[in-house]
Design the sequence.
């Protein structure tokens, strides 16, 4: 029988305020589509996707991604939700300053509950929206990510821009840690 077609299985979690586009990022990653009016009660909770990391010897990673799917207000679920996670997408909406400010609280939550070696990437979503609607500049997002030791990208679940790249960037960092025995 043939062996599995991947080298690693990595659990990812997606956190951030309601409405920033967590479900949409997950749908875009796993289904290559975008729903303009997703039904919040039908939030995608889990998605799986194979990605290849060219810089890491073309290793194939099976991403198992969990979305908080509308449970943002139930902070008590966090401990089990974070268990075993290797990567985290910390998402805010570039057109919502409050969602960027709350990212601090989400990060504190991640740091309290998750493995200390977890790789976290800050994702400024909805980069497709016009500059006039922006409330958080790229530089500001980048600066805060750097201060906190997070990876950073801006992405759009709507256009698909940088969505796979965000997961890939985080997965690559995790593979480097694994290779170094961290
Ligand atoms: P969640 O609550 O964080 O899971 O957010 P959703 O995925 O449900 O998205 C909230 C709203 O933002 C929905 O109306 C989406 O269609 C919209 N949305 C999500 N991602 C994007 C994006 O990249 N660009 C734009 N313009 N809208 C988005």
Sequence:
């Amino acid at each position: 029988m043939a062996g599995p077609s991947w080298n690693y299985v990595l659990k990812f979690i997606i956190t951030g305020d309601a409405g920033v586009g967590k479900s949409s990022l997950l749908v875009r990653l796993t289904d290559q589509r975008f729903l303009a009016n997703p039904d919040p009660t039908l939030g995608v909770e889990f998605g799986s996707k194979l990605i290849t990391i060219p810089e890491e010897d073309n290793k194939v990673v099976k991403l198992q991604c969990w979305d908080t799917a509308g449970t943002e207000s139930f902070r008590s679920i966090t401990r089990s939700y974070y268990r075993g996670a290797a990567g985290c997408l910390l998402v805010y909406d570039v057109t919502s300053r409050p969602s960027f400010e709350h990212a601090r609280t989400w990060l504190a939550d991640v740091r309290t509950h998750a493995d200390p070696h977890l790789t976290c990437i800050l994702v400024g979503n909805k980069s497709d929206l016009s500059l006039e609607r922006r409330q958080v500049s790229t530089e500001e997002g980048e600066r805060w990510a750097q201060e906190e030791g997070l990876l950073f990208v801006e992405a759009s679940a709507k256009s698909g821009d940088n969505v796979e790249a965000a997961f890939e960037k985080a997965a690559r960092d995790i593979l480097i840690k694994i290779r170094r025995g961290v």
The mean pLDDT is 89. The helical segments are 22-31, 78-82, 97-113, 138-148, 163-179. The longest helix spans residues 97-113.
